[in-house]
Amino acid sequence: MLRNRLLFSQDDKNKSQARTAICRKPRAAHNIGLRSQPKAKLAAILPALFIAFTGAVAAGSAFSAMAANNESAQTHADTKENVETHFTVIAHRGASGYLPEHTLEAATLAFSLGPDFIEQDVVITKDDIPVVLHDIHLETVTNVEDVFPARHRDDGRYYARDFTLEELRQLQVHERANSDGKQVFKDRYRGTHANFKVATLNEHFELISELNRQFGTSVGVYPEVKSPAFHIKEGVDASKIVVDALDAYGFGGESGNSYLQCFDFNEVKRIRETLGYKGKVVMLIGENDWGESDTDYNWLRTQEGMQQVALYTDGIGPWLGHLLDNEAMTQGKIEAAAWIAYAHENNLTIHPYTYRHDALPAGMSSEQVLEVLDKVVGADGVFTDHLVPVLRWREKLN
């Protein structure tokens, strides 16, 4: 049967300006220069290096020491004076660099490593139960084709919405696979006997709540409402279901230890205005051709766009590929893209996605990637599949 093709490149994944952002000590921001290279060689290296930074494995040159001030990131730092340095670490789909994504096992491992938040992507079953899966489709992360070979739609895809929770429980969750059935990240979990299962949002929230209670910790949750327009067409309000779950487990509201994220700007506005949600909300930013929603992400990354985003959200979750200035890179420098200044001007928290230790740019260390996010972009944190290197770097930073 047809398997899903490789994920879109995002898998490489404010009501007023007064909303509170996570604070860090002020520090001079920088750009990063490339080591001296002959011009012809540099011209060949730079495009590949930029692709590598966004998460693909590509040939490139190492980055050199920090240099030169970056004005937009400096402005961001100046608004956060005399506070403790902190860089938010978000476990992307749990500890997905080590165990199959979004399983309870991956969430438990993530908790044990000590992130600030654990992410849950949420889709809704046939019997209106929220489950934690990155996609509305099943075939890339489960054996649905073997268990229910005839249950695909006309497009050849298997939709979680077409299965009850009881049916989903019959599936085995495995590492994400590409169109030919091979693991997207070949060196990640290779086992075949551990019986990982699809879990509900309530199970994830209960797990994290109970672990917090027993260990005296405060790890937060970071759910994403997946494809809300699709769910509305299917007759179910996914956002309301997620909001209700956040409130039920004490993660919702203004004081709740959570962020609620979505790629659909119209849905973000509806979450605020129609559902009246008061907790922290993040606008995810992708590419228009990814098909995440009908949101114009190019417009969002304008001064007007960021001003509008700031009316409804506390922060943004931009793709790594949007963070750097392409023109500066042709000159051998690493600088933040101009639009990042608009986010800082509106005091929007910036949580980019996704740091992956098994997809680092060639010639660039883990610490150098994170220094770019911290000192060049002025990001407030990062989504990561690999918590260990990011937490180790943050410990040194603090």
Compact description:
Helix content is 33%, strand content 14%. By secondary structure, the protein is of the alpha/beta class.
What secondary-structure arrangement, pairings included, does this model have?
Elements: E1 30-34, H1 39-53, E2 63-69, H2 71-78, E3 88-91, H3 104-113, E4 117-124, E5 130-132, H4 144-147, H5 165-168, H6 201-215, E6 220-225, H7 228-233, H8 238-248, E7 259-262, H9 265-273, E8 280-285, H10 297-300, H11 303-312, E9 315-318, H12 326-330, E10 333-334, H13 340-345, E11 349-350, H14 366-377, E12 381-384, H15 387-397
Parallel strand pairs: 3-4, 3-12, 4-6, 7-8, 8-9, 9-11
Antiparallel strand pairs: 1-2, 1-10, 4-5
Helix pairs in contact: 3-6
Strand content: 5-15%
CATH H level: which superfamily?
A: Phosphatidylinositol (PI) phosphodiesterase
Structural class: alpha/beta
CATH fold description: TIM Barrel
- How many domains, in number, for the residues? 1
Estimated radius of gyration: 20 Å
CATH architecture type: Alpha-Beta Barrel
